[in-house]
Amino acid sequence: MGIHTGDSIVIAPSQTLTNEEYFRLRECALKVVRHLGVVGECNIQYAVDPKSQEFRIIEVNARLSRSSALASKATGYPLAYVAAKLALGHDLVSLRNSVTRVTTACFEPSLDYVVAKVPRWDLRKFATVDPAVGSCMKSVGEV
């Protein structure tokens, strides 16, 4: 849990969560968002113990982030556009889903393919930096 998410490999959708684990995390996320009163984009990062099924919230970002950009790229769902419309007072039901053009923006994207994000480092550019990963982001981009 001490690795910055910018230096982490991300696979979407998750390949190791059971349906039960996925829906428990989804239910928790909805409770957190409602409790915080979030309107717009929010992502929550979890640590899950596969042996005990226990999980902990590592981070809550009630804003657009690198994770949001990856989610938008992976699903085609325009998170920034929808968040801006919500901030202007529109609701999800009144917004058309730009992917399906049929459903509303309430539609929850579902992937039938896998997307991977891998960090990219340029250790020659930052020769004095310790190459060990930790809570400070050291990658210079992603592929």
UniProtKB/TrEMBL annotation:
GO terms for biological process: glutamine metabolic process. InterPro entries: ATP-grasp, CPAse_ATP-bd, CPSase_dom. One of its GO terms (molecular function) is metal ion binding. It is an enzyme of class 6 (ligase). GO terms for cellular component: cytoplasm. It catalyses: hydrogencarbonate + NH4(+) + 2 ATP = carbamoyl phosphate + 2 ADP + phosphate + 2 H(+). Residues 24-88 form the ATP-grasp domain. Its EC number is 6.3.4.16. It holds the Pfam family CPSase_L_D2. Gene3D superfamilies: ATP-grasp fold, B domain (3.30.470.20). This is carbamoyl-phosphate synthase (ammonia).
